Amino acid sequence: MRFSIVLCQFFLPIMAMLSAIILLISLPINGDVGWLFFATKQWIAGKELYREIFEVNPPMIFYFMAPSVYIYNIFNLDSVIVVKLYLFFLVSIMVSVNLRLFYRILGREALISVYITFSIAMFYIYPFYDFAQRDHLAILLMLPYLLNKYLVMFDNRRVPNMEGVAYGVMAGLSICLKPHFILLTIFCEIFWLIKHREFKRVFDGMLIFQIIMVSLFACYIFIYEKYYIDEMIPLAIATYWTYGLSLDKFNLIYYFSIFTFIVFSSEYLKSKRSKVFIRFMSVMTFAALIEFLLQSHYSYQLLPFKTLLYINLFNLYIAFFYQLGFSKPYFKSLTFLVLALTSGFGFYRYIDNNLNLLRYVYENQRLPSFKEIGLSNLDESVSIINRYFNKQNIYVVSTNVWPSAFISNYTTANWISGFPALWPLPAIVQSEHNSSSLSKEVISKIESEKPKVLNIIAKEIEYGKPSAILIDSREFPSYFYSGFSYLDFFKSQPILNGVLDDYCKFGLKLYIGNNVAYEVYIRRDINLPCYSLDKII
Predict the structure, then answer these.
(1) Is 464 helix (H, G, I), strand (E, B) or coil?
(2) Which one, of 41, 134, 129, lies nearest residue 79 by Cα?
């Protein structure tokens, strides 16, 4: 028995964390994270948020990213290394706080034996490419508030004053990052208010400091970032939040079946403590689902819902494990042994297959190249950009945010657009070519924002004078109808028609991302051979 417990308590967490570190090394920087680092760097250097940097997120995320920029500026390290280490450290602090609270809920044995490994897998590995995305950080910040609320309201635990303040502030920061997360707080308070019918008990210090944090941030926005309220939110409502992926892309039936299983299974729990906790977390999971549905539907926005769902499912398994008598020494030893062998083998296989990456980092004191992680096409694109456009301006015509992160963090070229991607264009095109799918009110909003967007694009190209313009040349560009062409769109718009007259095709394609091809067009005056003497429009 002792051997199996030692495997679960020490061997599995070490293997899980090693797997998480390898995963961190082996993935390129997340597109949104890479862009936000670059945008924060521009903001600290003097550019104005929401006037020169066009970001739909509230400004709190820039304050979260600011320390990484200062570290980068002081030590002059590789930006990707700085961002990854900084965010890994930030996530680790949040996970540690959550583990401390799970210790109080589950007990020492369950936490050490299985929950630490589960937490590493859930918070470091499961997010995969979306690790440290805004939604990932937000749910990690909100969880301590929710867990401690359960301890206070059900177990009557007394929370030290400073600890309660910290959890309230963390929840407030979560809402400042993701305003939709206010739904989790509302559902949380309603749940306990219905259960206890004591308003004074629900309205505690944690909630007060959460409200104070959110209120102060709202005042800051209205006073110092008024342009975000007056200009950016209307633009985002009219364009960015008009389109998104179809709900059938997210396999919601599968997740909802798990949610239903948890809700009905919890009724068979004999432990009132476990039953109330599962019910409470089910309500929070449902709130996270509504929070997702209210947004524009991107995969990373579903991460908070899936995180709460799997945490609740795991807690249900633990509750039934003890209820069904598997906690007896023989069963416990056998269960832990099977868990250690199966999970350990999975972690071992992953580590063994990617051990060369750890060796590469140790020997070269830097992150592996794209070629080393199996993305040779990106390595070639880096070489081409650095060879022909070193320290020169580049403009990208695409709705994908990844090129902004790629060019600003992996190449020596300069990203000059204030947009991370041209995210307003799909809504503008939709209003022109498929207006029947939009209401008259939405079309009116899009039409009112359209001249501003097109003028920004025209001025960025005119005044930035990029040496190269990369244009997404896919047959089905993201969020557009079949056969859409950026070049045809530019030609059809009086504001944009002519801004590309000084450019010609370079004669090559750059592959950036998942084999997404970008046609390269260059200025005629930079002494590079044009593939065609014709203007691109």
Answers:
(1) helix
(2) 41
What's the token pair of residue 314? Answer: 């795991």
Tracing tokens 């908070």 back to the chain, one arrives at: 304
How many Å apart are CA 95 and CA 84, to the nearest integer? 16
Place of tokens 């079949």: 482
How many angstroms separate the CA atoms of 259 and 253, rounded? 10
356's CB contacts (< 8 A; 6+ apart) are: 372
Rounded to whole angstroms, the Cα distance separating 322 from 279 reads 18
Assigned token pair, 380 = 């070639």
For 310-347, the pLDDT digits (tens) are 999 999 988 888 887 766 665 566 666 677 777 878 88
Alpha carbon distance 347, 354 (integer Å): 11
pTM score: 0.93
**What would the pLDDT profile of 69-99 be if each residue is shown by its tens digit?**
999 999 988 999 999 999 999 999 999 999 9
d(CA 65, CA 490): 34
Cβ contact 395:503 at 8 Å: no
Q: Do residues 93 and 269 make contact, with C-beta atoms less than 8 angstroms apart?
A: no
CB 509 within 8 A of CB 473: yes
| Angstrom distances, CA of residue 453 to CA of 41, 103, 168, 314, 515 | 23, 51, 39, 47, 28
Of the candidates 153, 127, 149, 152, the residue with the CA atom closest to the CA atom of residue 140? 127
Distance CA 191, CA 169 (A): 21
471 by DSSP, 3-state: which? strand
Give per-residue pLDDT as tens, 3-59: 666 667 788 889 999 999 999 999 999 999 999 999 999 999 999 999 999 999 899
pLDDT digits (tens, 9 = 90+) for 403-419: 999 999 999 999 999 99
